[in-house]
Design goal:
HIT family, subunit A, 22% helix, 22% strand, binds adenosine monophosphate, binds zinc ion
Length: 110
């Protein structure tokens, strides 16, 4: 999708610190990390949010990517977050899963 920063990262039109790639997903370090490890996993295809995701193959690919990324990084304990919609904290409208690790996390989240 035009003017979508994460589509540009997935298409390698702008640089990012890629840590993982497969057929349907890429993962890269968050620009503004909220924990010692903060990685974003995204589908290569544009979905504005989880609400628009309608492809079971991509759903499965995203969780597989989370498992591959964490295994590759040697992370066994981590927080995964999907913010859906502005009130939930979504600021980039290309579906992404946050992987956060390296510090304790509170529950419930703020
Ligand atoms: P969210 O608030 O859930 O939509 O998360 C968006 C995340 O994308 C934030 O944690 C930002 O720091 C991160 N972000 C925005 N632009 C970039 C970028 N160009 N490269 C890496 N991370 C980004
Ligand atoms: Zn996009």
């Amino acid at each position: 999708m035009e003017d979508c920063i994460f589509c540009k990262i997935a298409n390698k039109e702008i640089p990012s610190n890629l840590v993982y790639e497969d057929e349907n997903t890429v993962a890269f370090n968050d620009l503004n990390p909220q924990a010692p490890t903060h990685i974003l996993v995204i589908p290569k295809k544009h979905y504005a949010s989880l609400n628009e995701l309608d492809n079971e193959k991509v759903m499965s690919a995203l969780l597989t990517a989370v498992k591959n990324v964490t295994r590759k990084a040697g992370i066994k304990e981590y927080r995964t977050v999907i913010n859906t919609g502005e009130s939930a904290g979504q600021t980039v409208f290309h579906l992404h899963i946050h992987i956060l690790a390296g510090r304790p996390f509170k529950w419930p989240p703020g």
